Amino acid sequence: MEKEYTPQIIGFLCTWCSYTGADLAGVSRLQIPPSIRVIRLMCSGRIDPLFVTKAFIKGSDGVMMMGCHPGDCHYQKGNYYTRRRYKTINSVFESLHLDTERIMLSWVSASEGVKYGKVTKEFSDKITGLGPNPVQKEIFL
Amino acid sequence: MSDVLKIKKPVEEGITEFLKFLLEKNKVKGIFTLRKAEKTDSFSYSLITDVKEIKNAAPLTPIMPANAGQLLSSFTLEDAIKEPIAVIIRPCELRAFVELTKRIQANMENIFLISSTCAGVFPLKSTQNGKFSHLLPKYWDAAKKSEVLPSLRPTCTTCEHFVPDLADIIVSVAGNKNLAEECSLHLNTSKGEELAQGAPGNKTTEKLNDVELVKLKESRLKEREKLFASINDKNLGLAGMVKTFAPCLSCHGCRQVCPICFCTLCDFDSKTHEDKVSHYESELHQKGGARIPSGTIFFHTGRMIHMAVSCVNCGMCSDVCPVDIPVATLFSMVGESLQKLFDYLPGRDLEEPAPCETFIENEFAGLGE
Question: B185 pairs with which residues across the strands?
């Protein structure tokens, strides 16, 4: 039997909201897709656009950026910058005709374990539908 | 409407005379301009303090050996220049200078900005074999008629921001029918007026030739459309980019000459992105091959994300590329959509913060919910 395709998704989560939210999802025994690999950061404002680009170009099937809701940042305004960076990455990828579908931004608060479960499930399903990232087959990067 | 100083001489001679006047009358201590190396056809930016050197100054020569904004930053980085100098730069260089000043990489104090309605520059390669002067008659003719000269840099033939709004003095070049007879200096600010006080020539009031400039802008925008149309799915997307950047040597020359890339240690030169043997091993194991040097597309995409929003379209990157990758065209395209997104124009206003260092609380509502 052929092995079922499970994508590899990198998630950059801020420690105060999204990571705690993910923790809550775990404690609440919600089913989280096994495709998600979490990297915990102090703030979503720490997400250098190069982290996302590198993850994408080195072959991860999807990249998630997660932080506190706008206005709720533990450091007052880190996530506002994240939002601009996400838009920047998105716009550059669009101009270069690269796959913008594989990069996602979501706000998950510490109490939103259910939302974390839902968002990751949806994203994972979407990426499974898209199939493996074509960069994995591309030698000459 | 602004005050205009008219000198009854061809534009190049007129501006040189004006510079001579500035030095002689001690209005400025130095002049930063293009200078011709004696008995050759090669030019470089120089700071001149001796009046005798003015004869070698070539202020409006259509060549850009380096982005002057970057050069000015190199000697105003630590502190403002002590004594007043006048600089003759092109609009894109001026905008680069403003962007660098915003980022505390340059200082505008004590600097008088003399710029021109720019008719573009030739690629650096056209000066390589020691012949350059023969291109000039055609250039001045095209500037007079506000035509687009196809042999100029692609970024110049497609440039729409060729009027330097922030300059103290604007020399009317592109779209000026009387180039060969008189040199018109538009005194754009009070600083400019102060500088031109007592200068030889007649003072009048006049507007920059709007009709001609609009016409030129339109024809350049048409060229822009054509240029962007030449970059399509064949050069873009993953497969297209692999083709576009296939010849890239990773010399990083495009970054070196870029006025906006000012970091002393670039992230791409740091240990962070150094590929270890294990990286190549895993690449070979997984894909059956690896490009060496690696990370080319990552470098270019990363650089676009970092600074395309402040790209002033000077075209230095394409010009120095040894393998003729259309870096500047890609940057123009990416930059244009980014600038539209954040409603930003690099170098428009010294007080306007760069998009990456500011935010509006309720922008992009609904994103990520």
Answer: B5, B171
Between positions 19 and 78 of A, the ones with CB within 8 A of B are: 49-50, 53-54, 57, 59, 70-71, 77
In chain B, which among 309-338 make CB contacts under 8 A with chain A?
A: 309, 330, 333-334, 337-338
Q: How far is A59 from chain B (nearest CA, A)?
A: 10
Q: What is the pTM of this model?
A: 0.94
Instruction: Concatenate the DSSP letters of all residues of B123-163 into one string.
Output: -GGGGTTS--GGGHHHHHHHHHTTPPPTTS-HHHHT----S
Amino acid of residue A63? V
Q: Which amino acid is at A10?
A: I
Indicate yes or no: CB of B236 within 8 angstroms of CB of A97: yes
Mean pLDDT of chain A: 94
Whether B361 contacts chain A with CB within 8 A:
yes
CA angle, corner A34, sides to A30 and A36, nearest 5? 95
The H-assigned helical ranges of chain B are 11-24, 68-76, 91-102, 136-144, 154-157, 190-196, 210-230, 237-244, 253-257, 277-287, 296-307, 316-320, 327-341
DSSP assignments along B248-288, one per residue: -----HHHHH-SS---SS-GGGSGGGPPPHHHHHHHHHHHS
Kindly tell me the burial class for residue A5, based on how many C-beta atoms sit within 10 Å of its own C-beta (0-12, 13-18, 19 or more).
Answer: exposed
- Yes or no, beta carbons of A85 and B356 under 8 Å apart: yes
Highest mean pLDDT among A34-38, B176-180, B290-294: A34-38
Mutating which of B245, B298, B299, B325 best tests the A interface, going by the most A Cβ atoms within 10 A? B298
Q: Which residue of B has its CA nearest to A54?
A: B298
Tens digits of residue pLDDT in B242-279:
999 999 999 999 999 999 999 989 999 988 888 888 88
| Residue scoring higher pLDDT (B293 or A69) | A69
User: Is the pLDDT score of B12 beyond 80?
Assistant: yes
